[in-house]
Amino acid sequence: MTDLTSLTLAEARKGLADKTFTSLELTDAHLSAIEKARVLNAFVMETPDRAREMAKAVDEKIARGEGGPLAGIPLGIKDLFATKGVRTTACSKILGNFVPTYESTVTSQLWRDGAVMLGKLNNDEFAMGSANETSCFGPVGNPWRREGSNTTLVPGGSSGGSASAVAALLCMGATATDTGGSIRQPAAFTATVGIKPTYGRCSRWGIVAFASSLDQAGPIARTTRDAAMLLRSMAGHDPKDTTSVDIPVPDYEAAIGQSVKGKRIGIPKEYRLDGMPAEIEKLWSEGAEWLKAAGAELVEVSLPHTKYALPAYYIVAPAEASSNLARYDGVRYGLRESAKNIIELYENTRAEGFGAEVRRRVMIGTYVLSAGYYDAYYLRAQKVRTLIKKDFEDCFARGVDAILTPATPSAAFGIGEKGGADPVEMYLNDIFTVTVNMAGLPGIAVPAGKDAQGLPLGLQLIGRPFDEETLFSLGEVIEQAAGRFTPARWW
Amino acid sequence: MSTATHKLLKGSTGDWEMVIGMEVHAQVTSNSKLFSGASTTFGGDPNTHVSLVDAAMPGMLPVINEECVRQAVRTGLGLNAKINLRSVFDRKNYFYPDSPQGYQISQYKSPIVGEGEVVLELDGGKTATIGIERLHLEQDAGKLLHDQSPSMSFVDLNRCGVALMEIVSKPDIRDAEQAKAYVTKLRSILRYLGTCDGDMEKGSLRADVNVSVRKPGGPLGTRCEIKNMNSITFIGQAIEFEARRQIEILEDGGQIEQETRLYDPNKGETRSMRSKEEAHDYRYFPDPDLLPLEFSQGFVDALKAELPELPDQKKTRFVADLGLSAYDASVLVAERESAVFYETVLDKLANRARDGKMAANWVINELFGRLNKEGRDITDSPVSAEQLAAIIDLIGEGTISGKIAKDLFEIVWQEGGDPRALVESRGMKQVTDLSAIEKVVDDIIAANPDKAAQVKDKPQSLGWFVGQVMKASGGKANPQSVNDLLKSKLGL
Fold first, then answer.
1. Shared-domain flag, residues B92 and B38
2. pTM for the whole thing?
3. Residues B243 and B357 reside in one and the same domain
4. ipTM of the shown complex
5. Which of A290, A102, A291 is nearest to A208 (CA)?
6. Do A371 and B291 touch (CB under 8 A)?
7. Which residue, among A329, A370, A386, would best test binding to B if mutated, counting the most B CBs under 10 Å from its CB?
8. Number of alpha helices (DSSP H) and beta strands (DSSP E) in chain A
9. Would you call A203 a catalytic residue per the annotation?
10. CA distance B196 to chain A (A)
């Protein structure tokens, strides 16, 4: 039998349906791959017993012809998603050994459709980071290395565990979340496909909150088709999240292979940064050409407020985070440090429980919401946000169907290489992705090529609200043109 | 705005006027909490009415309870206030163990209800109109228990997340009496609407009172806020104390520090809780978990159409339709249960046009008097509305006299039973048969020749004869008939 882990999700679906192999066999193959790949530190909690149980149960269902759309497919779950009976920590010490009594809406829909959980995936603490270096469980290794180098690179963040595990064939797909680029940037760093759907497309219920108005769940997978299959199960209205939107979920997979003839692709001039590596510039032009060759029309567009997006994002996101993280106080669950009184309890618990980056953002957020600073920071950032949204609206109103940009300003870098002295250096990773969150739009990152050192690079497509389908169609064109990228196994 | 003269306080430098504004927190009557499905039932074992949302578990999200929205709109309509079709929930951030989220969801800049007014009836038929600034919805906090362990405090989250309406008045209140009347009236309106049970002992209604003093008509002084008052009597006492405290400071050349104070009912004084400098910076911002709250004018109109009659309307109707005095009408409508009782009596009366006013007197004087004496509540009255209506029917139709009716009332109070049947079985019927009364009158005149002779010079002694006849008839004689007969027999 060929290595089951190298199948795409769509191929595995066929194999399971044809009874070429069982979900238990598929699951075991992945469990053994996970075991051998512990050096990557992609999983923070392996759940082999539960995985085998779920696989057996779903095999019986498949035998009865009752398997759902994802029947028997083994997945990894970002540790930000609450999983009933399985430790959920957001990779923060402050949650300690917290075991939820509830299952997030998104994951419960995956289990409803027959998927199998392999375990919980590493991420930046509370999803705050762009390199998966802030996790209390330590950094995640990228399966990709520079040619001729043994340096371990970061997989990006915050969904670093998800991207690394999918790229290293440890799971067929993974859940992820994206607040400022946390799905798309790690996907680009690992040659995987990651889509952040429109804000409101997936329920946030049961996902540990970072910045409520920006957070959105989405999948990371190895192909656009696999991502489309996963998103269909993850998406949908949830009465428990009033910001989720009550519109039907289309069959995203049907968009794969759809003609893109006549689609107008915007190329935003503001994304052409000074000092951008030539290979990124080249990749971008190449991607545009591929779409043009497939019948799409290229148009130069302007998104004039782009340069304000990153600073505004680093006000809005920490502001919401400072409030969202107030519940981690040592009173009801998670870590509690000893103290003489309640103020000390808060101070000791939060000082000990939160890592440096989380503390930094809580402090920034508290500052920008404070009396006397609110108008100058938070309110102004919200105004900028409205302008950024309007930039996109104007663009779409002129008949643009999607916007093509690079996904990241660089390829993956080494662990500890960036942001040590200046956190802004790390924040700049999100320069092409935060605008999408600020505007609540869908964005997909697809692998498009490699840099001179053999590291993968991705392109980003940004779509109209709730038009993920166009992104899948266009993404697949790039995917077909660029080919698949698989890292050489070194672990 | 006040059309009433209000009380001024005398100081060594002359008169001082009080300026008072109130923030009343009223617990919304609803089955479940403002943003979760947990029960709002009072008195459960600690932490038995707590949902994952109330406990602020990771990843939990609030979902607005539409019934609480309806209750807030009903209340706004009852306060003749502007209903805002779009309002926004904000987070009020602060750390305290009774607030698991680390913030309270409230409405800061855009409340659900805007300006309205409450009309107060004061002594001497005066009225005062108190402006309502706003009403907003917010979450209640949990309760800390400090007496369970020597080294630790415990928290009960049953109450956490229960919906509160914060009703903010304008600083239109001018003395303690008005303040008490305002809370009383507000409570009455809420209870009529069924939007808050108004139970101050259980904390369903509590008030923060802002007090400042100034020379009459002068510029506003610095105010102090007295927090968490849950008794109307104490509100009056606290205001009096606080105003005098401020006057003393000002007259001694001092300045009022803006601060939050607590009232100690045992010592009858307010004391400082925290100064302005210690006030929290709540870092309000719109709650990103909740969309702005929006509804249509049609939604408001539908609620308006189903609004019950409120005390002011009821009072007007009692005066206009039944000829009650304004005072009697306001006594009857002050508590919803009293009004309901009175209206049930009216419904049962054989002739409400004739006896409606008498029914009001009976409810106010006999029934309330007796209930007060025994410390009982109207909902717990031994004499039912039906029974009282029957007694009044018997008086109205002339079957019994008012005096006998009081005896009958006492029997019904003690023993229960059908008043009409009791009158029959105990022979309490009024005697209107003139021949029967005439015999008694003749006998009494014959037995008292001296008095009969004197009565022409002393007509007021006729009363003595009336009394004798009534006594001899066991109170059953019709007093008017007795009077007429005596006058003719005695030649008056």
1. yes
2. 0.91
3. no
4. 0.96
5. A102
6. no
7. A329
8. 15, 11
9. no
10. 27
Q: Is A453 exposed, middle or buried (0-12, 13-18, 19+ CB in 10 A)?
A: middle
pLDDT digits (tens, 9 = 90+) for A423-468: 888 898 899 999 999 999 999 999 999 999 999 999 999 999 999 9
Task: Identify the domain boundary among B425, B443, B472.
Answer: B425
Strands A456-463 and A443-450 turn out to be antiparallel
Structure tokens at B348: 């049962």
Distance from CA of A182 to the nearest CA of B (A): 18
Same domain? B292 vs B361: no
Task: Divide the 492 residues of chain B into consecutive groups of 10 and give the mean pLDDT of each group.
Answer: 72 95 98 96 92 98 98 98 98 96 98 97 89 98 93 94 98 96 97 96 96 95 96 97 97 95 95 83 97 98 97 95 92 93 96 94 95 92 96 92 90 94 86 76 86 82 85 79 83 78
Query: Cα distance from A104 to chain B (closest Cα, Å)?
Result: 8
Judged by CB atoms closer than 8 Å, whether chains meet at A329 and B93 is answered as no
| Residue A60 tokens, joined | 């019986």
User: Does one domain contain both B24 and B113?
Assistant: yes
Amino acid, res. B184: T
- All residues of chain B having their beta carbon less than 8 Å from the beta carbon of residue A370 are 281, 283
| Amino acid identity for residue B14 in this structure | G
Instruction: Kindly list the distances between the CA atom of residue B232 and the CA atoms of A12, B180, B181, B183, B186, in Å, as whole numbers in the listed order.
Output: 73, 6, 9, 7, 12
- Confidence at residue B432, expressed as pLDDT on a 0 to 100 scale: 67
Coil/strand/helix, residue A476? helix
**The pLDDT value given to residue A2:** 59
Q: CB distance from B276 to chain A under 8 Å?
A: no
Are A81 and A14 in contact by the 8 Å Cβ rule? The answer is no
B61/A327 CB distance under 8 A: no
**Domain containing residue B477:** 434-489
CA gap B134, B143 in Å, rounded:
27
Residue A213 known to be catalytic: no
Residues B251 and B315 in one domain: no
Number of domains in chain B: 3
B143 contacts chain A (CB < 8 A): no
Single out the residue in B288, B304, B320 at which a domain terminates: B304
B457 shares a domain with B326:
no
Q: Is residue B130 part of a domain?
A: yes
B36 in A contact zone (CB under 8 Å): no
Contact (CB, 8 A) for B346 and B356: yes
Cross-chain Cβ contact B61/A205 below 8 Å: yes
Token pair in block for residue B10? 């005398």
- Residue corresponding to tokens 């020749």: B449
The pLDDT, as a whole number, for residue B98 is 95
Contacts of A344 (CB under 8 A, 6+ apart): none
- Write the class of the CATH domain A4-262+405-482: alpha beta
**Range B137-156 burial, b when 16+ CB lie within 10 A, else e:** bbbbbbeeeeeeeeeeeebb
CATH of the domain at B450: 1.10.10.410
Q: Does residue B167 lie in a domain region? A: yes
Q: In terms of domains, do B322 and B290 share one?
A: no
